[in-house]
Amino acid sequence: MRLGSSIGRRRPARGGGRKRRSTKRKRRASSRGRRPAGVLGRVLRGAVLLGVMFVLGYVAATRVVFPVPAPPPDLLGVPDLTGLDLQAAAARAAGAGLELGAVDSMYHPSAATGSILGQTPLPGQLALPGAAIEFAISLGPEHRAVPDVIGQHERRARVLLGANGFTVAVDSLEDAEPAGEVVAMEPEAGTAVALPFEVRLAISLGPPVVEMPILLGLSEEEAFLLLDSLGLFVTEIEMDALTSLEPGVVIEQDPAAASTVEVGSEVRLVIGDRALLPADLPRPDTAGNAGTITMGANMIRVISLQVRSAGSERPST
């Protein structure tokens, strides 16, 4: 017997061991390749099961739990009632198999009184046979009396008229009233009119103004005529017998020349010599008491004569 023969029989050949190990590796690789296919199959089977359960649940819900109601009877088209009166609207609704329902009313600036302005359901919609059509009828235009705004400021007048449904048109003019004040209106206050309506207001620009002319050196008559042409009035004449200027001319004036004054303002003059007063005018007595004269309603309203004697002080202007 040779030594090592038994060991040689037990140990397999190197080549055979390698073959067995390669076979095991192939089996493992094949088993790994089959695993994804098995997972995909299980996913597909689960999805199919869920779909079947969903379909069954839908059928059960729509057929058993919440069954579809029976189909309604034939629906009818809603006719258009706009513009019709109540009688004609009732006839048209009855002809369509419907009825008139609740009625509302409102003012309308142009729709005739009693005509239908709107409806529910709207024309062309569908409704059940015998259903009611609700509608609104016109009461015609609303009538209101024009409020009195004469004497008020333009801004306040606009607010008052606008709050009552009126529109406002404005004309401006020169007037003795303060600027911005309403001096006239059309129509007159208290007139009942249909809304909407435009009220015309005349707004004062204030009294007209003129520039005070230079009167110094003019004769009394020339000064009167010039002031009268400008709409100004001489209300006081003071005679100054102490002046060294030519007698009978204006030596002082109030308001001052080139100042702006309102038409109708009063003017005070100082004349150089009382001896040149017309003979037919009353003269002050020797004591210097004032007299009052009137020379033409359009030229002079009231003239107050004051004569200063020697030694008296000249009033400031």
Protein architecture, described:
Residues 276-317 have low confidence and may be disordered. With 317 residues, the protein is of the alpha/beta class. It has a five-stranded mixed beta sheet, covered by helices on one side. The protein has a three-stranded mixed beta sheet with strand order 2-5-3, covered by helices on one side. The protein has a three-stranded mixed beta sheet with strand order 7-10-8, covered by helices on one side. The protein has helices at residues 5-10, 14-65, 86-95, 154-163, 220-229, and strands at residues 76-77, 99-106, 116-120, 126-127, 132-138, 143-145, 166-173, 182-186, 192-194, 197-204, 209-211, 233-240, 250-254, 260-262, 266-271, 291-293, 303-308. The protein has three domains: 76-138, 2-Layer Sandwich (Trypsin Inhibitor V, Chain A); 143-204, Trypsin Inhibitor V, Chain A, CATH 3.30.10.20; 210-308, 2-Layer Sandwich (Trypsin Inhibitor V, Chain A).
